[in-house]
Write a structure and sequence with these properties.
Elements: H1 2-11, H2 18-32, H3 38-62, H4 67-91, H5 98-107, H6 111-117, H7 124-133, H8 141-154, H9 166-180, H10 188-209
Amino acid sequence: MIRAAQRNASSLRERLSPDAWHVITQMEARLALPVEGEEAVVQAADVALQELASFSGLSHENMNRAAGWRFLRIGRRVERAVNTARFARQFSCDGATAEDLDVLLTLVDSQITYRSRYLLAPLLAPVRDLAVLDPYNPRSVAFQVEELNEHIASLPALHEGGLIERPQRLAVAALAKLTAAEAEAIDASWLFALEQDLLGLAEAVGAHYFPHGASAMRPEKLTGLA
């Protein structure tokens, strides 16, 4: 994935800052080095995460807030929402142990938040609520979907007529599903369906704003996407 990012960056070299280019190239070179042993793998992953955080910070602080920035944020929010839903499905099933729930809290970076709210060991319903439904937790699925709605609603409409377009319809439906849900009623099948909804939303955004192929139809207007 880093090599793919480097290939994309090389074709946009004149649009990247020297710092951003340095982070990408250094990360690719570091990850290409062979490592042996569990400790070395963990250390390499930690360094890669630090470099990814640096690149994320550079893009967040320096990128113009045009439509391209919104597509970047949409991709990040969809990816995080899908991963969190998948983690919740795997580690918060009905038979989940305290250790399983603890792993989930770690994966969604919510250990401190959970401990600040509850003076108990991880329990199923509170952990599900925090990881999936809490709109104030920046790592929850609900938070990602709220952000998706904001970004998609801010993108220009590509067709005349005033009707809500498919990506926004799917985003609104996903948010409604999360808003109406209760932590006690969430199960693996519900989380899997949510995961598929989010993947469908990502496909809809790509098909709507980035049509390709011989049968692709040109949008009626493109104002605001530059």
